[in-house]
Amino acid sequence: GLTPALDALGRSGVVFLDATAHAPLTLPSHASILTGRYPTSHGVHDNAGFSLPESIPTLATVLHGAGYHTAAFVSSFVLRGSTGLARGFDRYDDQFAGAGRAHLTLSSLERRGPEVARAAAQWMATAPRPFFLWVHFYDPHAPYDPPSAFAAKFPGRPYDGEVATSDF
Description:
Elements: H1 4-11, H2 26-35, H3 39-42, H4 59-65, E1 69-73, E2 91-93, H5 113-126, E3 131-135, H6 148-153, H7 158-165
Parallel strand pairs: 1-2, 1-3
């Protein structure tokens, strides 16, 4: 009931009932997803202080080399392009309101899913074919603070509100 759009996608595609993250952190996990390697092989072990070495190919570099147009839209500052994840992407949208400010807050270093989805959909609407599009949503993620409409729909259940927010 929380995710009718994702549920419909699952009914028309393939669903993996057992999926395990390579690391319990965002940057190392994404480096693993995009390289097909474990953190011990790609060298990214934490969200800060690490970047993906240029010598390691990514899905984006391989597809770009094969003629795909590539774009990524990310919601968390820890996935900013300077971590090496932007390699191979023609467009890497990692703009955060708080970047460069002296006083940072968690909300200034992340973007809500609907904002990221709109930007990705705008790119996709005119993207030349073939293309590879990577979209990262930070919701749901602690601290759980769903938009007011979803907070009202799921009172006392902020995690569920953020999950439902991501299913637009």
